[in-house]
Structures are given as C-alpha cells and as structure tokens.
C-alpha cells in the first residue's frame, strides 16, 4: 500500500497539488478511514466496483482534494478465486461533485508487477481524466 502516494510525492513541488493519501489495506481501515459500509464490503467483497467507488468518494469526503483515485485488488500470489483471480484490480476516479468512473484492470505477473501495473494505470488514467476536464 501507498505506492500511488509515493509516486506522487517523489515529484518535486508535489506539496502544491498532493493533499493526502489513505492506505486502507484492511476492511476495518476502509470502514474507519473512508467510511465504506461494512455491509457493502460483505455484499460485494473488498475487491469490487462498488467498494472502489465508495473508497474514492470517501477519500474526497475526508480530504480537501479536487480529484481522488482509489484502488482495491488482488496482487497475489494467493487470495484469488475463479470469479476474482489474482491480478483483478478495481480502480475508481472522481472529481469533486462529479460522477465517479470505475474501471477493472486485469493485471498479470508477480505481486510487484501487478502492483506496478495498477499504479501506472491509476496515474496515467488520472492524468488523462484531469487533462480532459481542464481542456
């Protein structure tokens, strides 16, 4: 956890645009820090579109940010199921007062490769969305 924040804050001057990050690795952290409903997690699983969307909305609600991204996935090597294999990653993006966009990424490789693919996709897609919104 925390790779997206690390990539953002590696950039000089990031304090001008990066507000905060939430590492909500466990279900209780999702509930406590982002206000995700435990019932939602129990109904859909932590790795799901509804939970990713609730996470991204919670990130905006608990910050001063204009944009937020949330990621929940199975990086492996264990933990996968036939319905949600290792490499399943749900990402959610939202601009304040706008509809969220939720995307499923099917990554592959080692645990570190899956995590790197998710971070790369998250930052690339967030950059695209921000650029599209300001164009």
TrEMBL record:
Domain of life, per lineage: Bacteria
Gene3D superfamilies assigned to the protein according to its UniProt record, in alphabetical order: CinA-like
InterPro entries documented for this protein: CinA-like_C, CinA_C
Domain CinA C-terminal: 1-126
Name of the protein in question: Uncharacterized protein (Competence-and mitomycin-induced)
Protein's organism: Leptothrix ochracea L12
């Amino acid at each position: 956890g925390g790779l997206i924040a690390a990539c953002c804050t590696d950039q000089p001057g990031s304090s001008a645009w990066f507000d905060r990050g939430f590492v909500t690795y466990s279900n209780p952290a999702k509930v406590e820090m982002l206000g995700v409903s435990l019932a939602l997690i129990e109904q859909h699983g932590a790795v799901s579109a509804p939970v990713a969307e609730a996470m991204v909305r919670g990130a905006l609600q608990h910050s001063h940010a204009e944009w937020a991204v949330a990621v929940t996935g199975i990086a492996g090597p264990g933990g996968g199921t036939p319905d949600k294999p290792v490499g399943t990653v749900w990402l959610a993006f939202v601009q304040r007062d706008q509809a969220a966009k939720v995307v499923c990424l099917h990554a592959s490789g080692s645990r570190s490769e899956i995590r790197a693919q998710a971070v790369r996709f998250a930052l690339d897609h967030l950059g695209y969305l921000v650029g599209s919104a300001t164009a």
